[in-house]
Recover the amino acids of this structure.
C-alpha cells in the first residue's frame, strides 16, 4: 500500500505535515481542504486524493482533524519515529550558514566536519566540530544516520562514498555534483540551479 | 507531448543535462546508458525511457552523443533560451552565502535585497544590494524574472505575494514557509527539513 503513493504526492504530504505542525500551535482543531488550498495553492481535489492514501478517519463535517491528520501522515510515511542524528560535512559559507538552522523536533545535528582544522577551530556551534579525518569514528560513536553535504563539488563524490561506507543512510546534497552511492544510502539533492531550471522548464511548457 | 513527461523524469533530465555539461568539458563525444547509470545510480532502463521522451536522434552504437543529448533536453524542457535575471531577497546568513555561488551560464544575479540598510551597506557583492523598499522599481527596471527567497519564515508569504505582484515569474523558496502565490508565479521549495523527511520516509518504506 505504501508503494502506491507517488513521489509528488509524498512530497506534498511531507509539506502538509509541516504546515499542520505550524497551524497546530494556533490551537485550532480542524482545517478544510479549501483552507489547505488557499495556504498551498494545490487544488482541493489533489489534497483530498493525497489524504485518501492515508489510513485514518480524520475527516469530519468541520474539516480534517489537524492532529489526527498530521499523525496519519507521519505514520504512513514513517517520519515520526524518534530523533534522527545528523552531521554537516563541509563548513564553508553554506555549511556554516546551516549551523544555526532550526531543525525542528525530528532531527538533531550532533557534529560538523571540515577538512580545514582552522575552520573547525574558528567557527562556534552548539555541537562539536571535527577535522574530516575523525568522520568515521564520530559517525560510529554517535550513531549518526544522516549527513548534510556542503563540500566543494569536485570532492563531493569522494566524500559521499566515504560517508556511505561509514554507515550514513541518507545524504542531503547541497553540492553541484550528481552523486552515486549505491543502494544503502539515499541522496536528496538540494540544488539551486536545478530549482531555477525546473521553474524555467515549467514556464516553457505553458 | 511535453505534458507527458512526469515530474520525476523531468527532474532526472534536468540533472542529466547538468551532468552532460560537466562531461562535455572532458572532450568526450559519447556516453552510454550504463555509464550514466554508474554516475547517477538510476537504472539504465529508466535512463533510456527518460531519453525516449526527447525528439532527437542522439543514440548511436557508441552511446549517446553528449552535445546532441544535452541540447535535446534543453529544447524539450525549454531551459536554454538566453540568460534569466534573478535576485536574492533576504541577505541573512543563508542569503549572503549565496552571493558568491556559481550560477552557470543560464542565470545571472543582478540584485540583492534586505530590509536592513545596515546589511546592504556592510555586505560586498558583484551586483548591487538595495533596501527592500526599492524592490518594485529595481525588478521592473532590470527585468528580473526569478527570485531566491531567503527571508525569515514569518515574513516569507508577505514578501512572496509582493514579488508576484511585482512581476516575478518564479520563486526559489529557501524559507520554512509554504507559499501560495497564485497561478502567475511558480514556487520551487528548497527545504532542508523536507529533504531529511523524504530520506526518512524512503527508509521507512523499505
Amino acid at each position: 500500500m505504501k508503494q502506491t503513493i507517488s513521489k509528488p504526492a509524498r512530497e506534498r504530504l511531507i509539506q502538509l505535515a509541516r504546515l499542520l505542525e505550524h497551524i497546530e500551535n494556533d490551537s485550532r482543531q480542524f482545517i478544510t481542504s479549501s483552507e489547505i488550498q488557499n495556504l498551498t495553492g494545490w487544488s482541493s481535489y489533489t489534497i483530498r486524493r493525497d489524504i485518501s492514501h492515508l489510513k485514518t478517519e480524520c475527516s469530519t463535517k468541520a474539516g480534517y482533524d489537524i492532529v489526527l491528520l498530521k499523525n496519519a501522515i507521519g505514520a504512513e510515511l514513517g517520519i515520526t519515529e524518534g530523533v534522527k542524528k545528523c552531521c554537516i560535512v563541509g563548513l564553508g559559507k553554506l555549511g556554516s550558514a546551516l549551523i544555526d538552522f532550526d531543525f525542528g523536533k525530528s532531527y538533531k545535528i550532533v557534529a560538523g566536519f571540515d577538512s580545514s582544522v582552522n575552520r573547525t577551530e574558528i567557527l562556534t556551534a552548539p555541537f562539536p566540530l571535527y577535522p574530516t579525518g575523525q568522520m568515521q569514528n564520530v559517525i560510529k560513536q554517535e550513531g549518526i544516520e544522516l549527513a548534510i553535504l556542503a563540500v566543494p563539488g569536485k570532492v563531493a563524490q569522494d566524500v559521499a562514498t566515504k560517508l556511505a561506507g561509514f554507515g550514513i543512510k541518507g545524504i542531503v546534497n547541497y553540492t553541484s555534483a550528481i552523486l552515486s552511492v549505491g543502494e544503502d544510502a539515499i541522496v536528496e539533492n538540494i540544488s539551486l540551479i536545478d530549482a531555477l531550471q525546473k521553474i524555467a522548464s515549467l514556464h516553457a511548457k505553458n
Summary: Chain B touches chain A through 65 residues (CB under 8 Å). Chain B has a mean pLDDT of 88. Chain B has two domains: 7-77, 84-193.
